[in-house]
Amino acid sequence: MDIAVTDSGMGGLFVVKKLLERTRVGKILYFADNAHAPYGRLSELRLQKVMCANCARLKDLGAKTIVLACNTATAVCIDELRAEFSDIEFVGTEPAIKPAAARYDKLTVMATPLTLKQPRFAALLKASGAKVNTPDCSRLAHLVEYGLPDPKRAKAEAEHILSAYPREDLGAVVIGCTHYSYLAEFIAKRFGCPVFDGAVGVASRIARTCELHGAPHVDLILTDPSEEGRYREILPQLLPGGISFDVRACR
Fold first, then answer.
1. Which of 30, 43, 98, 191 is most buried (CB neighbours < 10 A)?
2. What is the pTM of this model?
3. What does CATH list as the number for 97-199?
4. Would you place residue 212 in the very low, low, confident or very high pLDDT band (cuts 50, 70, 90)?
5. What is the pLDDT of residue 37?
6. Does domain 3-93+201-249 have CATH number 3.30.950.10?
7. How many CB atoms sit inside 10 A of residue 64's CB?
8. Active site residue 250
9. CA–CA separation, 172 vs 132, rounded Å?
């Protein structure tokens, strides 16, 4: 397995979906670290240790490219991971602040509290030159994770968060967590605003730069075995039609 995608749960499957919609080819290892979900609630040190252990496992499984399909893990860990695993290519996920700011001077960035604290994120905001809202989205990833495939409570929470801003102050919404990607279409329709999602760009980058092999297939590994049944039930609704998959827990 050459390419692995990892996140704290189902969020990164949005990247996998967009990738397979483009390519319709390639065997992908998806590592759902649902035992530690959501990553936004962990300390920086704890998250770095978790990601280091997970990437060591993925390397042992044959991954040559690891996609961090998580804005928080990218912001907190990608520099350390690149230093630790110099023989692995890492692809990170970051909020699409730059393209959003190129077109709009007001942005509302939806990200986890841990992402918002990172210097990497602060640098993106400073370089944008835009007026930026950073609402508290701390409950949102959990509501998406346990609400899919139709996260009604998460949609209600997103509506509550964004309704706090007058429409003229909302500007463009930037999705800063792959779990929130499942809400992008709802947000665009409900608020009539442009939505920018870095996860879509990551899928495009992988399609352009990574060599994928074989019939499309997702090999999904969970760190919490108790979730295996739920993932098996939901996965067909989160992947493009006709994509085969296996679900198993870490051994």
1. 30
2. 0.93
3. 3.40.50.1860
4. confident
5. 87
6. no
7. 15
8. no
9. 10
Domain edges within the chain: 3-93+201-249, 97-199
Longest dimension (CA), the chain: 51
Query: Could you tell me how many residues make up the chain?
Result: 251
- Dig out the tokens for 144 from the structure: 């998406």
Look at the alpha carbons of 201, 204, 208, 210 in this order and tell me if their dihedral is positive or negative: positive
Instruction: For tokens 């961090």, name the residue.
Output: 68
Of 77, 137, 177, 210, which is the active-site residue?
Answer: 177
177 catalytic per annotation: yes
Which of 70, 77, 137, 210 is an active site residue?
A: 70
Residue of 18, 8, 5 lying closest to 239 (CA atoms): 18
Q: Assign 96 a pLDDT band (cuts: 50, 70, 90).
A: very high
Summarize pLDDT for 189-198 with one digit per residue, the tens.
Answer: 999 999 999 9
- Per the structure block, which two tokens stand in for 46? 């704890």
Contact 54, 6 (CB under 8 A): yes
Q: Percent of the chain at pLDDT above 70?
A: 99
